[in-house]
C-alpha cells in the first residue's frame, strides 16, 4: 500500500501534491482535479452549443448562468466518470506503468470508498442538471449509459475513442436542450464534429500507453493507426472542422464565429505537424493543448452571440 501523500506517476508537482490536505488527495486524484484537462475537454462542447443556441435565439441573457452551471457540472461529472473508470479498470491500471500509482491500484482508497465518492460527485452533477428544463434533464440523464459502458470498450473494440467521443461530446447537445428546449440539425452536426475532434485528440493521448496496452491486450485507435496516425488525424480533425463549419452555417453564424473556427483549424493543423508518436511527453502536451483549441472556437462563437443579440 502506498501512502495518501504518494504522487501519481503521470501527474506530479500540481496543487494536489503540494497544498491539498493529505486525507483528500486520493479523492482529488480520483476526480482528476490534479489534472483538469479532461474536465475542460468535456466542458468545451457545452460552451460551444450554449453560444450557438444563444446566437440562434438572439438572446444572451441566460448565457452567463448557463456557462457557470455547465462549468460546475462538467467538473463534477468528469470526476464521477473518472472514478467509475478507475473502479472498472483497477486491475488493468495495476499492470500499466503510468497508471499503477493511481489511488485504487495503489491501495490508497478501497473500491467501496471510491464508489461512495462517485455517488457524491454524481449528486452534484444532478443538482446542476435539475436547474434546467425537463427536456434538458432527460437529455443529460441519457448520456449516463454511454459513460457507464465506455471503460469496457477498450477490451472489445479497436475504436474505444468513438465511444469516448459520444460521451465527451454530449455537451454539444446540452446547450441547445437548455436554451432552446430541443435538439435540431445544428446541434446534431455540432455533436458529430465534436466526436471527430475527440477521436483525434484521444488517439494522441493513447500513444502514451501503446507498449503497455499491447502487452495487456488493451485496444485503441493509437494502436490501430500506429505509423498512420498523422494521416488519421488529418481525416478526423478535418471532419471536425468541416462538420462544425456546417453547424455554424446552419446557425447563421457571423464573421466572429468563423474566425474562431479558423483559429481552431489552424491549431489542429499545428498539432498534426508537431506530433511525434514516439515521444510520450510531447503526446501529452499536444493532447492538453486541445483546451486552447476549443477555447479559441468558443471565443469566436461567444463574440458572435453577443453581436447578434445586440
Averaging pLDDT over every residue, what do you get? 93
Helicity level, as a percent range?
A: over 70%
Number of strands: 0
User: What distance lies between the first and last C-alpha atoms, to the nearest angstrom?
Assistant: 59 Å
**Alpha carbon gyration radius:** 19 Å
Q: What characteristic shape results from the CA principal axes?
A: globular
User: What does the main sheet amount to?
Assistant: none
Poorly predicted tracts of residues: none
Describe it for me?
With 310 residues, the protein is an all-alpha fold. It has helices spanning 15-18, 25-30, 37-57, 63-88, 90-93, 111-129, 134-142, 144-153, 160-168, 171-180, 185-206, 210-216, 221-225, 229-250, 255-274, 280-288, 290-309. α3 runs parallel beside α10 and α4 (63-88) packs parallel to α8 (144-153). The longest helix has 26 residues, at 63-88. The mean pLDDT is 93.
Chart the SSEs and their pairings.
Blueprint: H1 15-18, H2 25-30, H3 37-57, H4 63-88, H5 90-93, H6 111-129, H7 134-142, H8 144-153, H9 160-168, H10 171-180, H11 185-206, H12 210-216, H13 221-225, H14 229-250, H15 255-274, H16 280-288, H17 290-309
Describe the structure concisely.
The protein is mainly alpha-helical. It has 17 helices and no strands.
List its traits.
mainly alpha, 17 helices
Amino acid at each position: 500500500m502506498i501512502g495518501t501523500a504518494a504522487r501519481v506517476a503521470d501527474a506530479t508537482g500540481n496543487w494536489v501534491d503540494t497544498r491539498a490536505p493529505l486525507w483528500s488527495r486520493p479523492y482529488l486524484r480520483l476526480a482528476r482535479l490534479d489534472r483538469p484537462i479532461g474536465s475542460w475537454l468535456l466542458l468545451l462542447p457545452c460552451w460551444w452549443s450554449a453560444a450557438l443556441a444563444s446566437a440562434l435565439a438572439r438572446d444572451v441573457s441566460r448565457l452567463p448562468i448557463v456557462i457557470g452551471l455547465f462549468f460546475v457540472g462538467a467538473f463534477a461529472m468528469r470526476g464521477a466518470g473518472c472514478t467509475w473508470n478507475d473502479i472498472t479498470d483497477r486491475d488493468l491500471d495495476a499492470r500499466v506503468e503510468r497508471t499503477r500509482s493511481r489511488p485504487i491500484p495503489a491501495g490508497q482508497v478501497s473500491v467501496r470508498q471510491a464508489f461512495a465518492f462517485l455517488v457524491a460527485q454524481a449528486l452534484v452533477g444532478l443538482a446542476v442538471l435539475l436547474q434546467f428544463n425537463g427536456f434538458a434533464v432527460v437529455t443529460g440523464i441519457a448520456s449516463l449509459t454511454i459513460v457507464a459502458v465506455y471503460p469496457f470498450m477498450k477490451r472489445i473494440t479497436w475504436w474505444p475513442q468513438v465511444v469516448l467521443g459520444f460521451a465527451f461530446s454530449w455537451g454539444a447537445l446540452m446547450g441547445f436542450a437548455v436554451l432552446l428546449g430541443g435538439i435540431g440539425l445544428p446541434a446534431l452536426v455540432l455533436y458529430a464534429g465534436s466526436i471527430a475532434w475527440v477521436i483525434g485528440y484521444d488517439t494522441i493521448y493513447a500513444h502514451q500507453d501503446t507498449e503497455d496496452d499491447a502487452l495487456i491486450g488493451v485496444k485503441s485507435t493509437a494502436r490501430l493507426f500506429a505509423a498512420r496516425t498523422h494521416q488519421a488525424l488529418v481525416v478526423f480533425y478535418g471532419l471536425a472542422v468541416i462538420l462544425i463549419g456546417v453547424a455554424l452555417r446552419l446557425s447563421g453564424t457571423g464573421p466572429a464565429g468563423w474566425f474562431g473556427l479558423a483559429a481552431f483549424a489552424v491549431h489542429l493543423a499545428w498539432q498534426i505537424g508537431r506530433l511525434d508518436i514516439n515521444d510520450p511527453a510531447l503526446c501529452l502536451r499536444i493532447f492538453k493543448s486541445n483546451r486552447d483549441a476549443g477555447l479559441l472556437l468558443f471565443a469566436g462563437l461567444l463574440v458572435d452571440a453577443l453581436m447578434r443579440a445586440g
